[in-house]
Amino acid sequence: MALGGYGAPPSVYWAVFELLVGANPAATFYLLGEVNAHVINRLGTPKQQEVFARGIIERKWGGTMMLTEPGAGSDVGSCLSRAKHVEGDLWHLEGTKRFITNGDFDTVENIIHLVLARREGGPGGTRGLSMFIVPKYLINEDGSLGERNGVFATGLEKKMGLTASSTCEMTLGEHRPCVGYLVGDEHRGMPQMFQVIEHARMGVGFKSFSTLSSAYLQALEYAKERVQGPDLAQAMDRAAPRVPIIQHPDVRRMLMTQKAFAEGMRALGMYAASIQDQVTLAGGHGHPDAQALDRLNDLLLPLIKGYCSEKVYSLLGSHSLQCFGGSGYLKDYPIEQYVRDQKIDTLYEGTTHIQALDLLFRKVAKDGGATLQGLLQQMEATASSEAGGEACHAAKQRLSRGIADVQGMFMAAMQKMGASIYHVGLQGNRILFSLAELTIGWLLIRQAEVAAECLSKAPDQDRAFYEGKLATAAFYSAEVLPGLTLARKQVEGSSLAVMELANESF
User: Fold this and answer.
1) Cβ neighbours around 158 below 10 Å, total
2) pLDDT tens digits for range 115-132
3) Of 164, 117, 125, 118, whose CA–CA distance to 21 is shortest?
């Protein structure tokens, strides 16, 4: 069913989303009901599409996804919520869900929850879960809102950050029946919900690097205005004039590091968005002609969510806030809020290690590494090309070495996995981070190739932009890519000593 709109491709959606979530992530989260609409429109019955998907889009209803429970966090298969069949697609649900983003709020007339629950007597684990549409208010046959459904917010979490987004405990069926409508077949809940989860994971990555971008721009402005100390080259001259701190080498290093990662992560996110464009043109998610593109998009998602969230949290404290000195620790500047608001990105929608295991088992091992090798071959083509000339030569040499190091890591991981699965658990994050850093380096070099071509004919007002692109790729390739050699040695030398240590020794 057509849901209206302009037919804009995913890349436009994600570019706009970055601007919104970078300005105010908590407010942006209240707009995500449309994701539920698209999932219902893709998987639901014609009636569900008409009532719920169209209602979300045309009447601007809110939406949530309900997976997590007090005893079922990362282990979703431990879900205790129960569903009892009434008739047709109508079920009654009972249970408690936790950490539900915007579980209840009063700025929309209705909220459409997508809920995972297990039918009475259903099999255990994730294979026994089904997905249900649970509206806050039931909907009458004429489309008007009916009585309140039995889904209520019974708790509001007191959080470290992102406090303008209501994170709720939700209780189903305690005081009155909680009516839910089965989506598709029974026991298909987890793969169905993954369509929402994967969109959310992409969004978390965009939230992270847009936060870093905002923090970098704040730090850059402060560094240009804050005058403190003489130029280091004149440090022994007491009469030397005081300079803006952007003149100090370590501040410049911190600024360039933030610039490189913010622009590189944005390139990673938009590269994935461009793949989603191609998936759409090839017939859409699940279409036979889109399978290879789907797999590439799937491979990139753990990098976007897992790596970007972890690296940004590290950079916000060690680089962004650090540029402000003691002032950064105050609420006078927004950086301390960025730190608090962003930390959750490493935790929800699958913790970082969940992303690493997802990469290694579901995205690489599942297809024998074919998608990974296809991505690395694209990188090799860039490394061996003459594009960009001398300006990109050194960076491409480092890229070639990085490709070999990452290939070596995956080979070592597969070999060691035969000896013990614990090796993958111990080294998974390192491998995830290494592939992400290599991919970001490749994308920055591609930008540098374009910049090198444009620089010679650029007008004066554009030269600094292109020079910045060349400098960013050179800086990143010199500062980050050599670290992949160390990471490879660590993976190859993986030891089980920490697993063999008695719990009492920690």
Assistant:
1) 7
2) 999 999 999 999 999 999
3) 164
Calculate the alpha carbon distances from 374 to 34, 237, 367, 368, 428 in Å. 33, 57, 12, 12, 21
Beta bridge partners of 92: 84, 179
Residues 160-184, mean pLDDT to the nearest whole number: 97
Q: In this structure, what token pair is assigned to residue 147? A: 């009585």
φ, ψ of residue 167 in degrees (nearest 5): -100, 120
SS3 content of the chain, % helix, strand, coil (to 5): 60, 15, 25
- Chain-centroid distance of CA 339 in Å reads 16
pLDDT of amino acid 1: 66
**Which letter, b or e, does each residue of 279-299 get, where b requires 16 or more Cβ atoms within 10 Å of its Cβ?**
bbebeebeeeebebbbbbbbb
Angle between helices 460-479 and 390-419 (to 10 degrees): 30
Kindly state the DSSP code that residue 134 receives in the 8-state scheme: E
The residue type at 367:
D
**Chain length of the chain:** 506
Question: What number of CA atoms fall less than 13 Å from residue 33's CA on the CB side?
Answer: 30
Residue 404 CA to residue 238 CA, distance in Å, equals 51
Active-site residues, by number, are 349
Amino acid (one-letter) located at 176? R
Task: State residue 388 phi and psi, 5-degree precision.
Answer: 90, -15
Q: Quote the tokens at residue 417.
A: 């996995």
Q: Tell the burial category of 46 from Cβ atoms under 10 Å away from its Cβ (0-12, 13-18, 19+).
A: exposed
pTM (2 d.p.): 0.96
What are the strands, taking DSSP E only, across 227-337?
Answer: 227-230, 242-244
CB < 8 Å & 24+ apart, contacts of 71-78: 73/99, 74/350, 74/351, 74/354, 76/116, 76/126, 76/129, 76/190, 77/124, 77/125, 77/126, 77/127, 77/129
**Residue 165 DSSP symbol:** S
Residues 155 and 495: their CA atoms lie apart, in Å, by 44
The H or E element that residue 225 is part of is helix 189-225
Residue 38 dihedral angles phi and psi, to the nearest 5°: -70, -35
Cα(244)–Cα(448) distance, integer angstroms? 29
> Burial level of 167, CB count in 10 A (0-12/13-18/19+)?
buried
- Beta-sheet pairing, 62-66 with 111-119: parallel
Chain centroid to Cα 371, Å, comes to 20
SS (H, E, C) 234-260: HCCCCCCCEEEHHHCHHHHHHHHHHHH
Tally Cβ neighbours within 10 Å of residue 384: 10
CB 152 within 8 A of CB 171: yes
Helix (H) or strand (E) holding 98: strand 90-101
The span from the CA of 25 to the CA of 18, in Å, is 9
Cα dihedral 251, 252, 258, 261, rounded to 10, equals -140
Give, in degrees to the nearest 5, the angle at Cα 436 between 435 and 439.
85
**Could you report the per-residue pLDDT of 294-342, keeping only the tens digit for each?**
999 999 999 999 999 999 999 999 999 999 999 999 999 999 999 999 9
CA–CA separation, 26 vs 28, rounded Å? 5
